[in-house]
Specification:
This protein is of the alpha/beta class and 182 residues long. It has one domain: Rossmann fold (3-Layer(aba) Sandwich). It has five helices and five strands. The radius of gyration is 16 Å and the shape is globular.
């Protein structure tokens, strides 16, 4: 079994990556293979709203932009579960996560094959005062559901409680790996 993490963070050593690694370690402890994609390290353009109506070939379930988006979507489709992890900026998703999910929700509108019902997790990690994590998590849940994922859990964290949440994320990964099958 394989789980893929899509990270909207720039820093592979930062809080969002640390939280994601804790969840992924729980799955790995149960024999799952893990893969991660840092969106900021890949070429992902924002949606162009191609035609005059603001749509384009995304209405047919594909995107015409030639970048890394399609290959990442294929990796998600081939995985058994997916994690979307984002730092919190202004109580919302990071810009790289927003750009990716804006395009994903458009193609999934009509082409949910191999994504529909796929188990998905969300992680939002806030710095600063940390108050924006719940709002960011709600935004993440909305997009994941629109895409057709089976949202199993979304865990908000803040720098002040990250150590506690790391333990919770590891236990969550082990528990869900057991329930999804190893």
């Amino acid at each position: 079994m394989e789980i893929i993490a899509i990270l909207g963070s720039r820093n592979p050593e930062g809080r969002t990556a640390t939280a994601t690694n804790a969840l992924m370690k729980g799955f790995e402890d149960r024999g799952w293979e893990k893969k991660e994609v840092f969106l900021t390290h890949r070429q992902i353009e924002r949606c162009r709203q191609c035609d005059d109506d603001g749509w384009g070939e995304c209405r047919e379930g594909r995107c015409i932009i030639d970048d890394d988006f399609a290959s990442i979507v294929e990796e998600i489709r081939e995985s058994d579960a997916v994690v979307f992890a984002t730092p919190v900026y202004y109580s919302d998703l990071s810009e790289s996560m927003r750009a990716f999910l804006d395009r994903l929700r458009r193609i999934c509108r009509v082409n949910k094959d191999r994504v529909e019902g796929k188990p998905a997790f969300g992680i939002s990690v806030a710095g600063g005062g940390g108050g924006g994590a719940p709002a960011c998590s709600a935004s993440l849940v909305g997009v994941m559901r629109r895409c057709g994922f089976d949202v199993l859990d979304v865990i908000p964290a803040r720098r002040q409680n990250l150590d506690l949440k790391l333990e919770l994320l590891g236990a969550t990964g082990r528990w869900f790996a057991d329930s999804l099958g190893s």
